[in-house]
Amino acid sequence: MTSSPRATRAIIKRAMNRTAYTVTVSVLLSFLVVSCKSTEADKIAQVPQSEGSPFARQPIPPAPEETIKVTYPSGSAIPASSTFIAGAVTAGTTLTCDGSPVHVTPQGFFAHVVPLKPGDNSFLLVEQPTGKQRQLIIKRELPPPPISADVFKIDSEQLQPNSDRGVVVGDLIEFSAKATPEAEVMVTLGKRKIILRPAAAVSRAAAAGRHKKSVKATIAPSSVNQGLDAAYGKVYQRRSASPPDLYVGFYKVQPDDQWKDLQPKFTLNHAGKSKSIFGKAKLTTLAQPFLAETLHADTIVRVGPGAGRTTPLGSGVRFFVDGWQGDQVRCSFAPNHHFWIQKDALNFEPGSNESGAAPNSVARTINVGSDEYGSTVTIPLSQRLPYQIEQRLKPNELILRIFGVTADTDWVTPAYSQPGLVDRVFWKQAADGIYEVQVPIKSSRQWGFKADYDDTNLVLHIKHAPRLSANSENLQGLSICVDPGHGGRETGAIGCSGIKEATINLGIAMKLKTLLENSGANVVMTRVTDKDVSLDERVAIANNAHVDVLLSVHNNSLPDGRDPLKEHGTSSYWYHPQSIALAHSINSGMVNDVGFPDFGSRFQNLALTRPSGMLACLAEVGFVINPEEYAILISPEGQQRAAQGLLNGLIHYLHPVSKHKAASEELKTAMRSHD
User: Fold this and answer.
1) Of 620, 637, 665, 666, catalytic
2) Residues 410-438: pLDDT tens digits?
3) What global pTM score does this model have?
């Protein structure tokens, strides 16, 4: 159960007293560590570092030893209205920032939130009684100024669309341009002319229209917000909602539109002047779809260009293509069911817009069987077609949807050899070109699933449960992959004194490895040293070892605009429903043993939570930019407690205590206390 705030503070205080000597030594050593940029794209709770991210930074030079050490912020152009300064001073000293007291631990770790105005912000840190000082210049992102009404201009770099498009009749194309306010802006597409309207006018018109129709005028006056952004689960206003120089519009492709690499022409008319420029995008209309097939195993499939993922596909899967946007190809799996795949992941069949076998099949038989992995459901088809898998826990089942398939199913073969997880299935024609198979699972839990093709037979695999010992302290029969997050050039977040998250993760993971092996589990590690291991390699290690559980060990940070003194604690993350209970149990185990606040267990789209062939969970033990938690995390004792909490959470999931047994134990405890 979650510790109370008072109990949490007591636990942290005891741990800090027990580890004061060790922590002090760690602080002194950490002053030699150079502040590094965190680069692992899949680190879910630190400032995003991917190319083009608004939060991307360049490291600043480390401070000389005689000055105050600052490990965050580590770069420039902060987009938020505040940030936090994290670092370390001499143990036992105090610190002020522009005269205001800074929160400092006895070990000298500190974090302090500061407001930011656009442009340069200067802050003076002073350590007492040593008198050490450090002047910080922190830059807040300056939003690009709007084009002045006195300037006749249309910005060629801000025209949309800005990537090539392949379209069919009925598609909508959205246009936008930055140009002189209160002017006329239009787009010419061959013989078509589209008038773009000012974004502010569009927003006002939308709101006014709703007010007119509404009985109670309770809708906010602005209804279209062009300047929102999001970081770490929270949405914030990054830029103006309706810039005065922004013009927007759209066009629906008509049957008589015939374009081949047509470049939209943007025209600005104002005060008797006229100027036209061509956009970078080239538009092409498709009269016929053409055929493509996937080239690789685990081909990434998205619901929109660069948007959320759905079930990955194996190689050789065929479907129609009827559009593209840049290097993202629009794939038509069934009528009105489009998905997007990267162009370099596809092979386009020559002349396929005129001839070739259409991607469809008839499903006549469903065969239920088993293999070493677990139970199988096989649907013989005439070719490899796209599919989706949906997992449900209530009821406990898997839903397999196959696109391009028509039902003529008159035979379902059950598994005769031995009882398995599946003894019956149900099918239906869910829609034109969508064949749906419902697979109830005879188990209180699901342990993994995957699908692949054996020739042209689509096989759904359902993992059997590990054969565990009945002894709740024994993990004999469990195979687990432990992944210490980051490593090598992927440093992860940087703690208050400069110790890398990757180093802390490895320390906890190696201690967990020992505990698991002492409990009888078979443990596979993705790394045991500080080395580079890609995200794909980590997942491949777990898949190739056929493990039951994949557990990735991390520690947390925060983006700008947040407060590490208020937002901190222990958390865990899952992707597939089958891993929800495991993530909750592991989170509870860490909270109970480490004593940090419960920061929650939630869904997160991460490379180390996405694998479906086993249970997969990512654990965030604590926050390395919270001074108190950092002091615990860098100590051997704190890392041991974190490892023990992870183990206890895993054991509780694998051997849950029944309500009757739990009540009995509580009664015995109460009676002993009474005696």
Assistant:
1) 620
2) 999 886 656 789 988 999 999 999 999 99
3) 0.84
